[in-house]
Design goal:
The complex is a heterodimer of chains A (about 270) and B (about 280).
Chain A (H helix, E strand, L loop, with lengths): L17 E10 L3 E11 L2 E6 L6 H8 L7 E6 L2 E2 L7 H4 L2 E4 L11 H11 L7 H11 L15 H13 L5 E5 L7 H14 L4 E6 L2 H7 L2 E6 L2 E6 L1 H7 L9 H10 L10
Parallel strand pairs in A: 3-8, 3-9, 6-7, 7-8
Antiparallel strand pairs in A: 1-2, 1-4, 4-5, 9-10
Chain B lengths: L7 H9 L6 H13 L1 H14 L1 H20 L12 H5 L5 H20 L10 H5 L3 H9 L8 H5 L6 H26 L4 H22 L1 H23 L4 H7 L4 H17 L8
The chains are: A alpha/beta (about 270), B mainly alpha (about 280).
């Protein structure tokens, strides 16, 4: 039987899982995709909403330490993310699912998740159990030994979620995870999100307002690289009135809050 | 109390949640525990001996969970591939290594078939050997060729450790081929091409921290092709300035380049965490 050890009695030495102050991230030569963002996120499921091109993906990639912040402060799990930092310890505690993620077609689901666990430096002895657990949590246990190329789009995405949670991350970053999932899978996925949000800081970027309503404890509305609104789904719904376009209270709140930052580019 | 760690008595009191304990002592113990894993394990031990209530509760929870954990049957894993190759090479690497092996073979054939004057007085193997590993290095860390690049880039092993592993793997595949070839053709000593190729590889890694490894390796390989291989091929003579490059007495220069490259990589080791 396992006994209580030093890891169990370790304290948390930071106030916020993710804290950004005046964060700016440049993409390409000129475009500031994240432009002066102040954001504090703690444990819970945070829905990152915003129109196309708002900078959601750039923000998630920056949080995943794939992109470097251009200016401003970013602190994750108490570690300063800067220009010449060693991210190794921090990255062990991050889970990341990119919007379009590539995989090795000849790998089985288990091999793929095992390889990712190896890359994330999960202790060797824990890898088989961690992989099995991650695969079971996304409901792919019966497909674990099938090759990735034989899976449907929704299953591939679930394999992607499995690799993101295989290291039991403290910060889980999911970029459009519900794309390609059928309605039943989407329901199951929302349950998983709620479950994960109990002890993890989950950031889910999505353009589906109903995902946020069902699974998130907190909404972050993001437009033109800036924070427009942060609050509970109820706060978001309360921001909209009957005069605002949208089919549900949340959608009306969404359009009400985004009215101020409408882009002059056209009606899309 | 020892100079560095909390005393067992203090930890015992703390574990019991002793109300007698002075507030400043609690603070001191907590501040120390935050940074000291040794004392946290001692605290864990104190919990077991001093607070049987909590220990018993934890044991009950674990005992309750254990049957459920045991009941979860692990499906036997059918292993299709050994695990070690993907630890050293990108799983998408096989075609590229094959290509490099073919290039080596072609150079050998060229060397054996063509009269020495055809390619100047420099062996074609010697001409391509310095940059051959670069192609592998470029391919092993490329966003375009590795489908899981984005996933890999955010993991703990990404950065210099993985880069060095992959570079080593490329060298392990490429160098023996060249070694055999050098022996067969007998036109060059191992040091004549080994040092330049290692120097080029380390320079590519060093430049990689500034512009990205793929870009650096490709750039160096192309530059070598334009400056050395192409003129040799076209004129049939090695330009005199470049003939000097291949002279055995230039080895210290290549050695210096290698050392500089390695030094630069070590100095900028943290710059590789985002490439």
């Amino acid at each position: 039987m396992p006994t209580t050890n030093a890891a169990d009695t370790a304290p948390k030495t930071y106030a916020w899982e993710i804290r950004a102050g005046g964060l700016r991230v440049r993409v390409g030569r000129k475009k500031m995709a994240v432009d002066g963002l102040d954001l504090c996120l703690d444990i819970g499921t945070h829905g990152l909403l915003g129109p196309n091109g708002a900078g959601k993906t750039t923000l998630i990639r920056t949080l995943a330490t794939v992109l470097r912040p251009t200016e401003g402060e970013l602190e994750m799990l108490g570690t300063r993310v800067g220009a010449m930092a060693d991210y190794r310890a921090l990255r062990r505690r991050i889970g990341y699912l990119p919007q379009d993620f590539g995989y090795y077609k000849r790998f089985t689901v288990r091999e793929f998740v095992e390889y990712m666990a190896w890359l994330k430096e999960v202790p060797k002895a824990d890898v088989p159990a961690a992989v099995q657990r991650a695969v079971e949590r996304v409901g792919l246990a019966d497909r674990a030994d099938h090759r990735m190329k034989t899976l449907s789009g929704g299953m591939v995405r679930r394999a992607g979620i499995a690799q993101a949670i295989v290291n039991d991350p403290a910060v889980l970053l999911l970029d459009e995870p519900t794309v390609g999932l059928d309605p039943a899978q989407r329901l199951r996925f929302r349950e998983l999100l709620q479950e994960l949000g109990r002890d993890t800081c989950v950031v889910v970027s999505t353009h589906l307002v109903e995902d946020v309503a069902a699974a998130c404890s907190d909404v972050v509305l993001f437009a033109d690289g800036r924070l427009v609104f942060q609050g509970t789904p109820d706060d978001l719904a309360a921001a909209g009135g009957p005069e605002h376009p949208g089919g549900s209270p949340l959608e009306r709140g969404y359009s009400a809050l985004l009215q101020g930052s409408e882009q002059p580019g056209g009606t899309w | 109390m020892s100079g560095e760690h909390a005393s067992t008595r203090l930890l015992d009191d703390y574990a019991r949640g002793d109300t007698e304990m002075a507030v400043d002592a609690v603070w001191a113990v907590e501040a120390h525990l935050e940074t000291c894993a040794t004392c946290r394990s001692r605290l864990a031990a104190s919990v077991a001996t001093e607070v049987p209530g909590i220990a018993a509760l934890l044991d009950t929870v674990r005992a309750g969970l254990e049957p459920q954990l045991d009941a979860a049957v692990r499906t036997p894993s059918r292993r299709h591939r050994p695990r070690w190759p993907s630890a050293w090479l990108t799983p998408a690497m096989a075609p590229w290594l094959t290509m490099i092996a073919v290039v080596t073979l072609m150079a050998l054939l060229l060397d054996a078939l063509a009269p020495p004057t055809f390619f100047g007085d420099v062996s074609p193997v010697l001409a391509i050997a310095p940059v051959l590993p670069l192609c592998g290095v470029a391919a092993s860390w490329s966003r375009g060729l590795d489908p899981a690049y984005e996933l890999t880039a955010s993991t703990a092993r990404a950065g210099l450790p993985l880069l060095l592993r992959r570079t080593t793997a490329v060298l392990v595949v490429v160098l023996p081929g060249l070694l055999v070839e050098g022996r067969l053709t007998g036109t060059m000593t191992a040091a004549q091409w080994l040092l330049p190729s290692l120097a080029f590889t380390s320079t590519a890694l060093a430049l990689g921290s500034l512009v990205g490894v793929t870009r650096a390796a490709t750039g160096l390989a192309v530059a070598w092709g334009v400056v050395v291989v192409a003129p040799t091929w076209l004129t049939g003579h090695t330009p005199p300035a470049l003939r000097i490059v291949f002279q055995p007495d230039q080895l210290p220069v290549w050695g210096l380049l290698l050392a500089l490259g390695i030094g630069a990589v070590i100095a900028r080791r943290n710059a590789y965490s985002t490439l």
